[in-house]
Amino acid sequence: MWKRYWKLSRDPFDARSSPFVPLEAHQEAVARLIETVETGRKLAILQEKEGMGKSRVLAQLLSEVRTPWRRVARISSPVDGASLFSELAEALGSRVPAGASRGLAWKRLGEALRLCRWQRQQVILAIDDCQNLPDPTDRLDLDRLVHADAHPAARLTVIQVFRLADDEERTVDPWSLSIALPSLLRSECERYLTSKLAASGREEPVFTPRAIHRLHSLSEGVPRGIDRLASLALMAGAMRGLEIITPEVVEAVSVECRHSAFCA
Questions:
Q1: d(CA 108, CA 95)
Q2: Which InterPro entries match (predicted)?
Q3: How many CA atoms lie within 13 A of 77 on its CB side?
Q4: pLDDT tens across 14-30, in order?
Q5: What pLDDT is attached to residue 173?
Q6: Any idea what DSSP says for residue 245?
Q7: What is the set of domains in the chain, with CATH numbers?
């Protein structure tokens, strides 16, 4: 109902369907990852706090580098080394028995990678939410992926995405590409909102300049926080029969998620 009220074809801020907005930092991150893939570098690491757009950057990268001569295996939140290897092997078309051991799963992944090499395909192994592998042994398994096919003719790139805790420091490996995503500036916040609304069919302004300023301030420039607050504000505005969203509306809906990780 609220989407029809604002003449939107869909929720502009739904992460599952909203478009990639080419903000400078996100575009740079995608470009650096593309360069990693195209030059055949072994490893790239994307690390940032929750809600900064890591998964969206990863999805954009994979959509831009996908070709018939590249195989992409993307998984999310592996719980241990065995599931890490099993899920990647299955994403490459290998069958792994349920409950397979770490050793068997590693063997199946190696076989799948060798088959790709024989077919002259480059392989991209993309692992989202790597922070869910807290055990040191599992982290070693994650590091082992770059050696899963050690043949000189192998073309393998591993992309690791980590969500950092608020108090966690970013680790920098001097031998790998480490990418961060900064918070959005006020001007970027406005462009972010405008682009998402336009992609959903709304060209006219929806938020006043002061409302955009409040959105940026309350979300601290975190894209997921902006999405959540903007969605709630549009719902509230439709219920109140408003023609435009004011800072007071943004302030009111922020109370609903003031203590949520999505709005901080």
A1: 8
A2: ExeA_AAA_ATPase_DNA-bind, P-loop_NTPase
A3: 1
A4: 988 888 999 999 999 99
A5: 64
A6: B
A7: 2-21+184-263 (1.10.8), 24-179 (3.40.50.300)
